[in-house]
Structure formats: structure tokens, C-alpha cells
Design a protein that fits this description.
323 residues; mainly alpha
């Protein structure tokens, strides 16, 4: 009697848990809330709401009989503390869940490093008095450095979430000029962000009374440096967004279409911000759109500059097809 052959089934590859990517997404979302609340601190002149004390507020852990500016600044510091805890948990969880050499490990380490520099820069702003009505040239420099670090921190946390998702990325033909365009778009957008933070500060400290008056202020020899730098934001945005549009068209994917939608939304918000003389609510909405666009750009550039590595079966198939 012939023996019956029982097929041996290979064990299914375990599906990675969605809990860690979800936690990373929550961390990204909370980071955006911290950034928007920081813009509210700047727009309301509440940077010195806790006095010249850091990390304590007016020398106390909990402020007593606080003013409105104290509440706004204390809320920002409290949210920053929560965000720090979230990033610390994300670092530990990522190192436990991912193997050595995983790119999500590298990005989450940079998240921790940039979070530390963010805290140090925030302390320098407070202890150095670069808050409230300080319109010195040094505040312009500190404002640019601080906001650039914030953008890099958001980029690192975004990359951690993006790479933890383990979703297949679109396969695109990557030429040398595409890589160069991706790098240029990232650097140009960082410059636009720094110039935008200065422009927002100028609108807060020297609010224009009319659109014509704002243009005259921008090119006045007697205007402070941060006012004369205000025009750099829209000028640099034209170059950066033009480059990003070209990159988005090269992606030929849902991510590329999302980048295009966010770019045009930013153009509309930016133009409206100028016409309406930068009201606080519109500044914060414009910043929210800028954060969303920056996240999409970082993910798009990661697709070009750090494409998803092939797994062994796929790599073997590619080798056979080429031979």
C-alpha cells in the first residue's frame, strides 16, 4: 500500500504589531501640538510668562496665581515634558522591537538627540532674554536656529514612524538628478522654515497696519533686521516649492499627490496670510499646513534617498531577472 504524502506547510511569517507604529504616530501628532502651542507663545508674547527661570516657572514647579501669559508658557513647557516622555518610550520600544542596524533605530536615536538640543535652545531663549519684545539681531539668529532644530526633530520622529510602518514603497527609477533634487528640496525647505519663523516674529513685534505699509517696512533702511528679512520667506518659498513640485511629480504615487495638494494649500494659506496682515489664528493654521507638508516632503525624500531594502527572496528574484 503506497504511503500517503503529507505536504509540509511552511510557517507563516509573523506580522509585525501595529501598536508601535501607532504609538509613533501619536508621538508625531503630539509633537505638532507642541509646535503649534509654541507659536501661540510667540504670537501672544508669553515667552517670559515664567520669568527668567527654566525649567521651573517663576521659581516654582506649579505657578501660583498665574497671569494669562504664565498659563500659556507653562502649558507649553508641560506639553514639552509630555512629548519628552513619549519620545523616551518610543526610543526604548523601538530598540526592543527592531533588530540591530534597523534604520528606525537610527532615526529614533536622532529624535532623542534633537530633543535634547531643542530643550537647550529653549532654555537659552529664556535665560538669554530672547523673548517677548526683544527685537535684537541675536534673537533673529536664535529664532532661526531654534526653529531649524524643531524642523529636524519633527523630521526624525516622522522618519521613525514612516519606517516602523513596514509598508511597501513605490519603486521608482532613481537618477542622480532626482537625488540631488531631493537634497535641495530638504535644505531649501529648512531655509524657508527659518525665514518663516523670523517673518512671523516680525509680524508679532511690528504688526503692519496695511499691505502697502508692510511692503514699505520690508525695504526700509531704518527697519529692524527681522522686518527687513520678512521678504525672504515668500521669495525662498517660490524656489523650494518649485523644486518640491518637480520631486512630487517624479514619485508618481499617492505620497507625491499628497505633497502636491499640501503645496498648493500652503500657497493659498501663505497668500491669505499676507493679504489679511497675518492674524494669529491664520499664522497657526499656516504653520500646521507647513508641518504637514514638511512631513510629506521628508517621507518623499526618504523614498528617494533611502529606498526600502530588498528582502532576501525579492533580492534573489531581481538577480535572476537581470541574469
Amino acid at each position: 500500500m503506497p504511503s500517503k504524502v503529507v505536504p509540509i506547510s511552511t510557517p507563516a511569517k509573523p506580522k509585525p504589531s501595529d501598536a508601535l507604529p501607532l504609538f509613533a504616530a501619536v508621538t508625531v501628532g503630539f509633537m505638532i501640538l507642541v509646535i503649534l502651542e509654541g507659536a501661540l507663545v510667540r504670537a501672544t508674547g508669553s515667552g517670559a510668562g515664567c520669568g527668567n527661570h527654566w525649567p521651573l516657572c517663576n521659581g516654582d514647579f506649579f505657578p501660583h496665581h498665574p497671569r494669562l501669559t504664565t498659563l500659556i508658557e507653562y502649558t507649553h513647557r508641560s506639553m514639552t515634558g509630555i512629548c519628552t516622555t513619549l519620545v523616551a518610550v518610543l526610543i526604548g520600544w523601538t530598540f526592543l522591537a527592531r533588530p540591530r542596524g534597523d534604520r528606525a533605530r537610527r532615526s529614533v536615536v536622532w529624535s532623542g538627540i534633537l530633543l535634547l538640543t531643542e530643550a537647550l535652545l529653549g532654555a537659552l531663549l529664556v535665560k538669554g532674554g530672547y523673548v517677548e519684545n526683544n527685537a535684537s539681531d541675536m534673537r533673529v539668529v536664535m529664532q532661526c536656529i531654534h526653529f531649524t532644530n524643531t524642523m529636524l526633530l519633527l523630521a526624525a520622529i516622522t522618519l521613525t514612524w514612516w519606517w516602523l510602518r513596514d509598508r511597501p514603497q513605490p519603486r521608482i527609477v532613481i537618477h542622480a538628478e532626482t537625488r540631488m533634487t531631493a537634497w535641495f528640496a530638504l535644505v531649501a525647505t529648512l531655509l524657508v522654515g527659518g525665514a518663516g519663523s523670523v517673518a512671523a516674529l516680525a509680524d508679532t513685534l511690528f504688526p503692519p497696519t496695511s499691505l502697502q505699509g508692510a511692503f514699505l517696512q520690508d525695504f526700509s533702511a531704518h527697519a529692524p533686521l527681522l522686518v527687513r528679512m520678512r521678504w525672504l520667506h515668500p521669495a525662498s518659498a517660490v524656489i523650494a516649492l518649485g523644486t518640491a513640485i518637480w520631486l512630487a511629480l517624479q514619485l508618481r504615487s499617492t505620497l507625491g499627490r499628497l505633497m502636491l495638494a499640501l503645496i498648493f494649500a500652503q500657497i493659498i494659506l501663505g497668500a491669505t496670510d499676507v493679504v489679511l496682515l497675518a492674524p494669529t489664528w491664520l499664522q497657526i493654521l499656516h504653520l500646521l499646513g507647513a508641518d504637514a507638508y514638511w512631513m510629506a516632503l521628508v517621507a518623499g525624500c526618504a523614498t528617494v534617498l533611502a529606498p526600502q531594502p530588498l528582502n532576501p527572496p525579492e533580492a534573489t528574484a531581481r538577480t535572476l531577472n537581470r541574469s
